């Protein structure tokens, strides 16, 4: 499976961001399962899920400190790349 994501190192914290469909963020506990399913691609780091609305505005779900940080970061500043997870 291929997906878009980013591995971010900021202020001594390393975490991953994975782009998902908007309905995943709204699915409550299922969103946590989805985040966990990406753990093999990013072992040992917290995972934040990100979805965009129809206007391209991002919404994040994950650790509160990371979500707060990302809410102030322009999307084009995030080092996005394509990952493969088998």
Strand % is 25-35%
Poorly predicted spans: none
Strand order of the largest sheet: 4-3-2-1-5
Please tell me what the overall shape is: globular
Give the radius of gyration: 12 Å
- Structural class of the secondary structure composition? alpha+beta
Task: Tell me roughly what share of residues is in helical segments.
Answer: 10-25%
| Strand count | 5
Rounded mean pLDDT score:
94
How far apart the termini lie comes to: 6 Å
Q: What is the H/E order?
A: EEHHEEHE
Please work out how many helical segments DSSP would assign. 3
* Major sheet size, sense and barrel closure: 5 strands, mixed
3D architecture notes:
There is one protein chain. With 86 residues, the protein is α+β, with helices and mostly antiparallel strands. It has 3 helices and 5 strands; from the N terminus they run E-E-H-H-E-E-H-E. The chain has helices at 22-25, 29-37, 64-70, and strands spanning 2-10, 13-19, 47-52, 58-61, 81-84. A 5-stranded mixed β-sheet has the order 4-3-2-1-5, with helices on both faces. The model has no long low-confidence stretch (mean pLDDT 94).
């Amino acid at each position: 499976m291929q997906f878009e994501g980013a591995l971010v190192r900021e202020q001594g914290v390393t975490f991953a961001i994975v782009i998902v469909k908007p309905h995943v963020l709204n699915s409550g506990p299922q969103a946590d399962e989805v985040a966990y399913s990406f753990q093999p691609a990013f072992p040992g780091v917290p995972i934040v899920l990100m979805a965009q609305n129809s206007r391209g505005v991002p919404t994040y779900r994950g650790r509160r400190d990371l979500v707060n940080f990302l809410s102030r970061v322009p999307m084009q500043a995030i080092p996005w790349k394509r990952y493969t997870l088998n």
